[in-house]
Hints:
Pyrimidine Nucleoside Phosphorylase, Chain A, domain 2, Transferase, Pyrimidine Nucleoside Phosphorylase, Chain A, domain 3, 16 helices, three-stranded antiparallel beta sheet, disordered N terminus, Aldehyde Oxidoreductase, domain 3, 458 residues, four-stranded mixed beta sheet, alpha/beta
Amino acid sequence: MTSRRSWQDRPHRARPAATDVLAQEIIRLKRDGRTLSAAQIERFVQGLGDGSWSEAQIAALAMAVCLRGMQRDECVALTMAMLRSGRMLAWPELPGPVLDKHSTGGVGDKVSLLLPAMVAACGGFVPMISGPGLGHTGGTCDKLSAIPGYELRPGAERFTQVLRQVGCAVTAAGADLAPADARLYAIRDQTATVESLPLITASILAKKLAAGLQGLVMDVKCGNGAFFDNPPAARELAQSLVEVAGGAGLPTRALVSDMNQVLGRTVGNGLEVIEALDYLTGRAREPRLHELNLALGAEMLLLGGLAFDREAARLKLQAALDSGAAAERFARMVAALGGPADLLERPQASLAVAPVSVAVPAPRSGRLAAMNTREVGLLVLELGGGRSRAGSAIDPRVGLSQVLSLGASVAHGEALAWVHAADRASADRAVARLQAACSWVDADKLAPADPVVIERIG
């Protein structure tokens, strides 16, 4: 598919002279499949920042890149130019490796609430700069907004202080980190160029490089609840991220993970915070969520030199959970960023509850065979758990809990999930929508579910 062609697919072409900096010339060169020089890419990014490129010109080059792709060096140059468009963080005095993890977006994916505390308890430092939800997927910042008082934009001094004292700080991206990407992304969103592999790669990595990392692990989702629904496309993105990050000087590994079902047992901002607290304290740990946490966390520890091999890294992460050290780091981070000091012990005192909770009855007996996970994300958005347009308010109370995993056996009428809603009418619509999003088979006809980790890259 030409819209996803990456720099790996492009034949080598001689670079044009660095003096060709007129916007229309740069657009023409890429339109014709030529390789842009670092100077030309730098000029484009400058135009994003200073307004000298019009929205029409930006859209034209974005479409040209979407259709023609980029060489590896072009993508590295674009990433570095967007990085230099804003502030770059540095952590010279921290006594441990600076690490992070990033997901391409999933349904029920609360890993970013868990891994920073787990890795911090193992000796790493995690300055995670996250964003809001995109489309049908949930955003880490939206989940943390469900915690009363939690400050997503604490300012540079406080952010640094929390990171140094706690070992992790999860906050929202500021306008001063890779600001050129913000303008480019807004235009990509309006011009059907969001799926361009080089532009996705540069957008993600520019912000991660700006965070001053020493190691990055990417969770590239694949399945009917992900932006990439097939393994070849997800693998191509993972490879692009690993190679371009390496070319920019950031050691990176990627896991391709399954998103053909909800990750964990909840979807919705406040409900996912509750599940995260249950996970950290050991009250409940859904197996697939636990496996993905350990797999991603192990790669982070290996990149940071905090473990010698994957088995040792997994044991170290498990010990951080079992000892309560990871839960303690999360509680300290929440309190240091303005949230309640007793959230771990008394979550019900701080997290709002939806006024309506109803079970979703299984329409027949059998085993859950398949789930339209994107539809699950959209129904939570319709309940008010996401943004239907920029700037719209989010209801942190709504969503789904106790969602069954694929392969689960249930009798007719038993609950396959619970809907939490602001009113009965929206709850009833969600019940019908979830029933329609699931399919059932007799027990003897069920194929085993895919493993949560499909492939490691890098």
